[in-house]
Amino acid sequence: MDRNRLLELLAEVERGSLSADDACTSLANLPFEDIGHARIDHHRVLRSGLPEVIYAAGKSPEQTAEIFARMAAAGADVLATRVDEATSTAVLNAVPNATHHVQARAISLRQTKMEIRGHIAVVCAGTSDLSCAEEAAVTAELFGARVTRLYDVGVAGIHRLLAVREQLNGAHAVIVCAGMEGALPSVVGGLVGVPVIAVPTSVGYGASFQGTTALLGMLNSCSPNVTVVNIDNGFGAAYTATLIARASESLR
């Protein structure tokens, strides 16, 4: 339940079109719903403006599907990340109108009329970084941001990045996903005047140490507008970028 739905519910009670008992039933699961293996935070969107998200890794397909279905029944927009094939099958059987984003390893369900607020550019160095970049893009879109995808523009061919500079400059925040040595966020940071959220990816040969080399390189960026999230954390980057984009848009 988001703020608009809550206000609508209260207005219905005030008008007499909804009884107090029925309204109480609708609010019974606030602030959370205990289903045994999980306590679903239906109240989060009222506190933060963004809904709770399901991290599917480590959960059984049945657990993820039940959580997803309960959140969907509450009328919320729903997102599950790190979804494997078995989990996607279980979720789609439970909620057939959900959308499986294969590249992003995510499943989403849009149920609210969310206003498009803020513009985020999602950049990745190479095609091998697409899974992380798409996780970020799908998340930001579900949260109501306008997303521009700028893929395969790594520093090994810097002219590819310079060719999309104008599109970069139109964003309120930029997410940059890169593996190997992790140089791309520093270059992007030097080109734009907005926050850059760097996402190190677990892409590269042995000495990349599953993204640790990129992580350390990004943490040592000489571009002061670059901040860093955890390895492969496209979701976390999108969550923060959405909040930044919303705030930046409201100030303009």
In short:
The chain contains eleven helices and eleven strands.
Structural summary, described in words:
With 252 residues, the protein is an alpha/beta fold. The protein folds into two domains: 3-109, no CATH class; 119-251, Rossmann fold, CATH 3.40.50. The chain has helices spanning 3-15, 20-26, 44-48, 61-73, 85-94, 130-142, 158-162, 165-169, 184-189, 212-219, 234-251; strands at residues 33-34, 39-40, 54-55, 78-81, 99-101, 106-109, 119-124, 146-150, 173-178, 196-200, 226-228. The strands form three sheets. A five-stranded parallel β-sheet has the order 8-7-9-10-11. Strands 3-4-6-5 form a four-stranded mixed β-sheet, with helices on both faces. The protein is globular and about 65 Å long. The mean pLDDT is 88.
CA radius of gyration? 20 Å
Structural class label: alpha/beta
Net shape? globular
Give a count of the beta strands, DSSP E runs of length 2 or more: 11
The CATH class assignment of the largest domain is Alpha Beta
> How large is the share of residues in beta strands?
15-25%
Give me the number of helical elements. 11
CATH topology of the largest domain: Rossmann fold
Furnish the topology, listing elements before pairings:
Elements: H1 3-15, H2 20-26, E1 33-34, E2 39-40, H3 44-48, E3 54-55, H4 61-73, E4 78-81, H5 85-94, E5 99-101, E6 106-109, E7 119-124, H6 130-142, E8 146-150, H7 158-162, H8 165-169, E9 173-178, H9 184-189, E10 196-200, H10 212-219, E11 226-228, H11 234-251
Parallel strand pairs: 3-4, 7-8, 7-9, 9-10, 10-11
Antiparallel strand pairs: 1-2, 4-6, 5-6
Helix pairs in contact: 4-5, 6-11
